[in-house]
């Protein structure tokens, strides 16, 4: 028994499991940052008074929300890098990492957009009318009045999107980020099948430990920051 | 009344700004509606409306719900679009959506039934936002202006609070200060006291009467007859999308000419 446990300990050190989790956290951080920026832009397009922008925003969301992430990730490597020869960094690892971040961002931006739009729906129409009535045009009204309230109404759905993004960051394996968690787990199980369940438990519990605080934090934030009406 | 005035809309001369509040001494036309029509689906909510409001005039629009009076009020700063006809404010026809419309709206103050204060901003920020972001006023000047206006409507001591911490009457007075901060040429009031508890109605009406006495041009959709009698130069009675009757308030409330107005007044006066 003791031998078994110490063997597992050695295994975890040998394969840099913490480093693998750190990679997924970094993928999530950058993916979330770009997804938030792009998703906000898409949400602005979807509530704008310009019909063609609304149409473009809606089309983007339909396409990327309904495309499997694995397809997008594989395309990032096979299409964007191999075929189109668009390179995002000079060294291999950084290039794959950045391609994966772009894939994660363009996919989750569609969900961010819809989360923000649900936040916009929590803002009464009168707020926009009052903003227009004092002479603010669409962009200043959106920036000063609508979006600040919409974000505060969208914290819970944005938190759910962040949780999905963290878990989906393992799909970076399909973009050749072979040092992230799911790839690491695959290698570990392949060479140490006698530790099958233990290895699985380490990765599963690792994600539970990461995800639960995000949920708790966003729930409490969404309560604390709710706009009182 | 001069509904048929065919002025091409020279900006009103300034000497009328301090004109006394009597029907004959009012200034040049400030808001003009000509043959305005609007439909909501099959419903013809504004039917060929002609209306002229002169500088310094206080106009009360009264009528049963669904008569189109709120739509009329909201059409004047294009919160509702119209199907045809023209609306001019100070000689300029309402522009399409865009910068020009935003500029015009800055000169038309609006007070809503449900206050619509910016819920995530303090009372002070609600009032300074327009002057700072639309007029480009400095923070210091805007705050000075805001505090003066908040004092004027009697809520100066609430400046640091959030709207949700205020009573309805206080919120509506802040909304009036917010509109005034843009130094509008005309103020629109869309049933400003309808959402208020009865004991808060007077504090809002008092602020409006004071504003009227200062010579502000006002278009007020309301059922408050006390206000109409005290402050209005003219009452317009609307029903089913049409202007049925126009008269001096005293004349309208004591001797309405039309059957519709008599019927409406009997219903709201018998309690």
How would you sum up this structure, described in words?
Chain A: It is found in: Cell membrane. Chain A: Residues 21-218 form the ABC transmembrane type-1 domain. Chain A: One of its GO terms (cellular component) is ATP-binding cassette (ABC) transporter complex. The complex is a heterodimer of chains A (229) and B (271). Chain A has helices spanning 2-14, 17-47, 51-65, 69-83, 92-120, 125-133, 138-153, 155-168, 181-191, 196-224. Chain A has 229 residues and is an all-alpha fold. Chain A has one domain: Orthogonal Bundle (MetI-like fold), CATH 1.10.3720.10. In chain A, helix 3 packs across helix 5, helix 4 packs across helix 5 and helix 5 runs antiparallel to helix 8 (155-168). Chain A is flat and about 75 Å long. The mean pLDDT of chain A is 94. Chain B has 271 residues and is α/β, with parallel strands linked by helices. In chain B, 34% of the residues lie in helices and 23% in strands. Chain B has a 6-stranded mixed beta sheet with strand order 6-7-8-3-9-10, sandwiched between helices. Chain B has a 4-stranded antiparallel beta sheet with strand order 2-1-4-5, with helices on one face. In chain B, strand 1 (29-40) and strand 2 (43-54) form a beta hairpin. In chain B, helix 4 crosses helix 5. Chain A binds chain B through residues 49, 124, 126-127, 129-137, 140, 144-145, 148-149, 152, 227-229, and chain B through 77, 79, 97-99, 101-110, 112, 114-120, 129-130, 133-134, 162, 164, 175, 178-179, 182.
């Amino acid at each position: 028994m003791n031998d078994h446990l110490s063997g597992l300990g050695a295994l975890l050190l040998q394969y840099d499991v913490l480093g693998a989790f750190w990679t997924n956290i970094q993928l999530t951080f950058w993916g979330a940052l770009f997804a938030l920026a792009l998703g906000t832009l898409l949400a602005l397009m979807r509530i704008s008074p310009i019909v063609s922008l609304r149409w473009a925003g809606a089309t983007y969301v339909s396409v990327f929300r309904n495309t499997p992430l694995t397809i997008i990730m594989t395309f990032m490597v096979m299409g964007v890098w191999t075929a189109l020869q668009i390179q995002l960094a000079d060294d291999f690892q950084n290039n794959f990492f950045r391609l994966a971040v772009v894939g994660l961002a363009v996919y989750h931006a569609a969900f961010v957009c819809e989360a923000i739009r649900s936040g916009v729906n929590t803002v009464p129409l009168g707020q926009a009318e009052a903003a227009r009535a004092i002479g603010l045009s669409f962009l200043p009204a959106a920036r000063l009045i609508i979006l600040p309230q919409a974000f505060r109404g969208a914290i819970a759905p944005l938190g759910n999107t962040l949780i999905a993004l963290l878990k989906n960051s393992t799909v970076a394996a399909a973009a050749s980020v072979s040092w992230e968690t799911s790839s690491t787990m695959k290698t570990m199980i392949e060479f140490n099948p006698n530790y099958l369940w233990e290895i699985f438990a380490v990765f599963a519990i690792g994600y539970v430990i990461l995800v639960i605080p995000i949920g708790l934090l966003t729930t409490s934030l969404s309560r604390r920051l709710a706009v009182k009406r | 009344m001069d509904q048929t005035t065919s002025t091409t809309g020279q900006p009103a001369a300034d000497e009328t700004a301090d004109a006394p509040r009597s029907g004959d001494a009012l200034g040049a036309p400030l808001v003009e509606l000509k043959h305005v029509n609007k439909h909501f689906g099959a419903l013809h909510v504004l039917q060929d409306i002609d209306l002229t409001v002169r500088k310094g005039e206080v106009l009360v629009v009264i009528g049963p719900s669904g008569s189109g009076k709120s739509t009329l009020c909201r059409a004047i700063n294009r919160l509702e679009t119209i199907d045809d006809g023209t609306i001019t404010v100070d000689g300029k026809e309402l522009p399409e959506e865009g910068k020009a419309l935003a500029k015009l709206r800055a000169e038309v103050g609006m007070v809503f039934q449900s206050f619509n204060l910016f819920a995530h901003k303090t009372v002070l920020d609600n009032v300074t936002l327009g002057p700072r972001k639309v007029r480009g006023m400095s923070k210091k000047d805007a705050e000075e202006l805001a505090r003066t206006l908040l004092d004027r409507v009697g809520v100066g001591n609430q400046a640091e609070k959030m709207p949700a911490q205020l009573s309805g009457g206080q919120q509506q007075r802040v909304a009036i200060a917010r509109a005034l901060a843009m130094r509008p040429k005309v103020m629109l009031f869309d049933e400003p006291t309808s959402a208020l508890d009865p004991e808060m109605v007077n504090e809002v009406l008092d602020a409006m009467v004071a504003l009227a006495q200062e010579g502000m041009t006002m278009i007020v959709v309301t059922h408050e007859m006390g206000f109409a009698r005290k402050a209005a130069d003219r009452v317009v009675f609307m029903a089913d999308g049409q202007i049925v009757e126009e008269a001096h308030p005293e004349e309208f409330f004591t001797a309405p000419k039309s059957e519709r107005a008599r019927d409406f007044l009997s219903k709201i006066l018998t309690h």
